[in-house]
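Schema walk-through. Below, the input block comes first and the output block second. Nothing else is stored per chain. Lengths vary across the set, and this one has 61 residues.
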Amino acid sequence: AEGAPLSIAHAKRAVDLVAGRPGAGDEALVNELADRCFDSADYAEGRTAFAEKRKPAFRGQ
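--- output ---
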């Protein structure tokens, strides 16, 4: 699969952590993982690549 490796890893971790056991702290943890993705170089690269209509070059950062 193609995609930003950091975002994919955090999404998988979020699902693994909250699957089958929703709790009060889960929303904060998922939000923290999302913030890490949005603050990443890969996220910026994805937005830039989309605007420039080119394929992104994700580096896992």
